[in-house]
Amino acid sequence: MAEIFALMLSAILIENFIFSRFYGCCPFLGVSEKPATAMGMGFAVVFVMTLSSALTYAIYYLILEPFGLTYLKTIAFILAIAALVQFIEMFLRRFLPALHGALGIYLPLITTNCAVLGAALLNIQEGYDFVKSVVFGCSAGLGFTLAIVIFAGVRQKMAFCDPPRAFRGFPLILLAAGLSAMAFAGFSGLRIA
Amino acid sequence: MNWNDLWIPALWFALLGLVFGLLLAIAARVFAVRTDPRVPAVRDALPGANCGGCGYSGCDAYAEAVVRGEAAPNCCTAGGPETAAAVAAVMGVDAGQAIRMRAVVLCSGSGTRAVRKYRYEGAQDCLSASRLSGGDKLCPNGCVGLGTCVAACRFDAITVRDGVAEVDPSRCTGCGACAAACPKHIIRILPADAPYVVACSSVDNGKVTRSYCAVGCISCRLCEKNCGAGAIRVNDFVASIDYALCVRCGKCASVCPRHIIRTDRIGEPVTVPASAQEPEDRFPEA
Questions:
Q1: Phi, psi (5° rounding) for residue B191?
Q2: How far does the CA of residue A170 sit from the closest CA of chain B (Å)?
Q3: Among residues A58, A117, A87, which one has the least CA distance to residue B20?
């Protein structure tokens, strides 16, 4: 139990997907204009990461490993995640229209997201079992959500400043992202016994 | 070379692709949601700018509302009569009358014509500036000129020239996003064929208006007296034109001593007559 908790805390804060691993930077910069949309994107990522961690675990240990095809895991995972996201979208539209309305526009964006693929590959690399894989996927998604929502707040404040012309737009956003990452670097001193 | 290294992965990946493909094909059938085929048809007839001028959150929402029968086919201000006709054709109903509208900034106080009470240096946003005792212009209803409307416009129709926003009528679709964004509420949505506009929103009396603007409406009522159609009324010290009565004769524009009743702003600088004194700048630029 303590091990699971340590894994969650590590994935959310210490090894945050955006601020310390630099995965999923494109939705992080692209969909962080407003806290509400950032939240929607974040929860879509949590949803897909959790399910894809379970699916890729099954594919790796049931198909790839027995046949010695582990060197093809990247392409197999891309295929599986893309199919999974499509399937989830159709399923949600049919049975949970409210959830589809909230996550719908973000789901296709995640199909080829490197954070989702990264979580799947890290699960294998770290040798997590099934439960740990799912927990890691879910908490990595939560870490992503935390980072993107915090950053959306930062960007809302930034909208009111009047920077020099050369810094307007993306230069300042990237600088702010760097400063936020430095703040998160403080968590790397955290030690979980 | 070991052929097993080739055909085993190839077989497995073909199988995976096949399984996923079949699964998605079945899912598409099983989970298919019945949608009215008219929704995408209406959606295609709309401009797709998602401007919100119709009152719905975007073109998709409006298309659904039209098909549900909640909205009339002529609510798309951006598309105008052509879009209304196309939507009505999809729905098989009469288009009704769609009047093309456009936005007009009712202020002429550009450059040195309007007296400024302080020099504003801060967030380049009209709302922030207008929080500081109503903006830098002494006129309480003058254009702040920091481009909040420019940012709100989805059609790149607005530019700020010399401290006053201008709407390009050839690009404006009349969606009203700028009018909603303007903290001074001086952008009006008028019929696109309205030839003459009173480009001033000052509701102070003539003496006060004169003290802070070289061109503001001084409510002299010359336009009202000279209008043969009775379309102009001066209320609250500012002239306004009733476009239902206006016969587009242009007499008002020719008699206005302040030259603020105009046909179009674009490329047509207001000529201030020599008799109209430039008001003294109380805070000259250092």
A1: -60, 140
A2: 17
A3: A87
Beta carbons of A149 and A35 less than 8 angstroms apart: yes
Q: Which residue from B minimizes the CA distance to A76?
A: B13
Within 8 A of B120 by CB-CB distance, chain A residues are none
**Along the 286 residues of chain B, how does pLDDT read in single tens digits?**
788 888 888 888 898 899 999 988 998 888 877 777 888 888 888 888 777 778 777 788 888 888 887 788 888 888 878 888 888 888 877 766 667 788 889 998 887 888 888 888 888 889 989 988 888 898 999 999 999 999 888 888 899 988 899 888 888 888 888 999 999 999 988 888 777 888 899 888 888 998 888 888 998 999 999 888 888 989 888 888 888 888 888 888 888 888 888 876 544 544 554 444 455 555 544 4
CB contact under 8 A, B8 and A90: no
Contact B79, B46 (CB under 8 A): yes
Q: What tokens does B158 get?
A: 């607005």
pTM of the model: 0.59
The domains of chain A are located at 2-189
Q: Is A87 close to B23, i.e. CB distance below 8 A? A: yes
Task: Report in angstroms the alpha-carbon separations of B147 from A166, B64, B104, B105, B161.
Answer: 19, 33, 14, 12, 10
Name the packing angle between helices A114-125 and A73-95 (round to 10°): 120
CB contact under 8 A, B8 and A72: no
**CA torsion, points A26, A32, A36, A41, in degrees to nearest 10?**
10
Query: B284 CB contacts (<8 Å, ≥6 apart)?
Result: none
**Which of chain B's residues have a Cβ under 8 Å away from the Cβ of A74?**
none
Q: How far is A163 from chain B (nearest CA, A)?
A: 9
The size of the A-B interface in CB pairs under 8 A is: 49
Contact B149, B181 (CB under 8 A): yes
For the record, the structure tokens of A23 come out as: 């995965």
Domains of chain B: 19-98 (no CATH), 101-262 (3.30.70.20)
Partner-chain residue, chosen from B9, B27, B31, that has the shortest CB–CB distance to A69: B9
Kindly report the nearest CA distance between residue A67 and chain B, in angstroms: 8
